[in-house]
C-alpha cells in the first residue's frame, strides 16, 4: 500500500499521515513515512524526540550524497549528470526510526521553474519511485500543500492519492484539481479523507461533493489533536476516539487493496 497524502495547506495532511503511519506500524506493517514537504514537520507529528528531530538532514541537502550519486561536482553546473543514480541503499541508511515508523525527509528541491531538472530532483524522484516499487509493506508520503509539485512526479506510481479536505469549498477545490492531475499523471485512484468534522452536516456536505466510493472516511475535529501539536506530542498518542477513526480509514484502504487484487 503506497499512498500520497495531499490537499490544501493546513487541512491536516501531516497529522493524518503521521497517524496512518503509526496505525500501520502498530499492526506490524513495515512502514516508511516520507516527508516530501519542504516545510518538513512530519518527524514532530510522528513523535520523534527533539534530539533526533534536530539532527535530521534532508536528502536534498546531503550535497556529497547528491553529487556522488549523480556524478556532478559540487558548485559546478554539469549537464552530464546521471539520470539513473543508485538509490537502493538510501532508505536503509538514512531512515530514522521511531515508534516503528521509518522516516525519510526529502527536503526542498529548487526547481527554478517546472521544466528544471536538477541533480537533487533526479535523485529524489528516483528514490521515491524505488520506494514505491520496492517497499514490501506501506509507504505514506506527506506531500507539500497544493498541486504544482505533484506534476514533478515524486508521487507518481503510488496506489492512490489521499486528499485531505475540511468542510469547506476551498479545500474541495484543491481536491478536484488533484483528481484531474492524478488522471493526467496516471494515478487512477484519488480518495478523500474529511478532517476536522464538527457534525453530521459537515460530513454530508463533503459527501455531497464526492462520487460514490471516493470518501475513505472522516476524522472529527478534536481539541486534543491541536493540543498535542502545542505540547509537541504525536497526535496518535492523545486520543482513542481519533485513533478509532484512523483505524476505520486504514481498514477501508486494506479492503480496497484486497478488492483490487481480486479483480486483477
Ligand atoms: N482532526 C483535527 N482536529 C483538530 N485539529 C486538527 C485536526 N487535524 C489537524 N488539526 C490541526 O490543524 C493544524 C494543521 O494540521 P497539519 O497536519 O499540520 O496540516 P497540513 O500538513 O495539511 O498543513 C494543526 O494545528 C493540527 O493540530
Ligand atoms: Mg504538513
Automatic annotation (TrEMBL):
The UniProt keyword set, sorted, is: ATP-binding, Nucleotide-binding
Give the record's GO biological process terms: negative regulation of cell division
Alphabetized InterPro entries for the sequence: CobQ/CobB/MinD/ParA_Nub-bd_dom, CooC, P-loop_NTPase, ParA/MinD_ATPase
User: What Gene3D superfamilies does the database record attribute to this sequence?
Assistant: P-loop containing nucleotide triphosphate hydrolases
Task: Determine the domain of life of the protein's source.
Answer: Bacteria
Matching Pfam families: CbiA (PF01656)
Q: Show where the CobQ/CobB/MinD/ParA nucleotide binding domain sits.
A: 4-233
Q: Which GO terms describe its cellular component?
A: cytoplasmic side of plasma membrane; cytosol
- Gene Ontology molecular function: ATP binding; ATP hydrolysis activity
- The identity of this protein, by name, is CobQ/CobB/MinD/ParA nucleotide binding domain protein
Gene source species: Intestinibacter bartlettii CAG:1329
Amino acid at each position: 500500500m503506497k499512498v500520497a497524502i495531499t490537499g490544501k495547506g493546513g487541512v491536516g495532511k501531516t497529522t493524518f499521515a503521521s497517524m496512518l503511519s503509526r496505525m500501520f506500524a502498530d499492526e506490524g506493517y513495515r512502514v516508511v513515512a516520507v516527508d516530501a514537504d519542504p516545510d518538513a514537520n512530519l518527524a514532530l507529528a510522528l513523535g520523534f524526540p527533539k534530539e533526533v528531530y534536530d539532527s535530521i538532514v534532508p536528502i536534498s541537502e546531503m550535497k556529497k550524497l547528491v553529487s556522488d550519486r549523480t556524478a556532478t561536482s559540487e558548485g559546478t553546473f554539469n549537464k552530464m549528470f546521471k539520470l539513473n543514480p543508485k538509490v537502493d541503499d538510501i532508505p536503509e541508511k538514512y531512515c530514522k526510526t521511531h515508534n516503528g515508523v521509518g522516516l525519510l525527509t526529502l527536503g526542498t528541491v529548487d526547481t527554478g521553474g517546472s521544466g528544471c531538472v536538477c541533480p537533487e530532483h533526479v535523485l529524489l524522484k528516483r528514490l521515491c519511485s524505488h520506494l514505491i516499487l520496492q517497499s514490501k509493506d506501506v509507504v505514506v508520503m506527506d506531500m507539500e500543500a497544493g498541486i504544482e509539485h505533484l506534476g514533478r512526479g515524486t508521487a507518481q506510481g503510488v496506489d492512490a492519492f489521499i486528499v485531505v479536505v475540511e468542510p469547506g469549498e476551498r479545500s474541495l477545490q484543491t481536491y478536484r484539481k488533484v483528481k484531474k492531475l492524478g488522471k493526467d499523471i496516471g494515478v487512477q485512484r484519488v480518495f478523500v479523507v474529511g478532517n476536522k468534522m464538527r457534525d453530521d452536516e459537515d460530513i454530508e456536505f463533503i459527501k455531497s461533493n464526492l462520487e460514490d466510493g471516493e470518501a475513505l472516511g472522516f476524522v472529527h475535529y478534536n481539541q486534543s489533536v491541536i493540543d498535542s501539536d502545542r505540547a509537541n506530542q504525536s497526535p496518535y498518542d492523545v486520543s482513542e476516539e481519533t485513533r478509532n477513526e484512523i483505524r476505520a480509514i486504514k481498514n477501508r484502504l486494506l479492503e480496497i487493496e484486497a478488492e483490487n487484487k481480486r479483480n486483477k
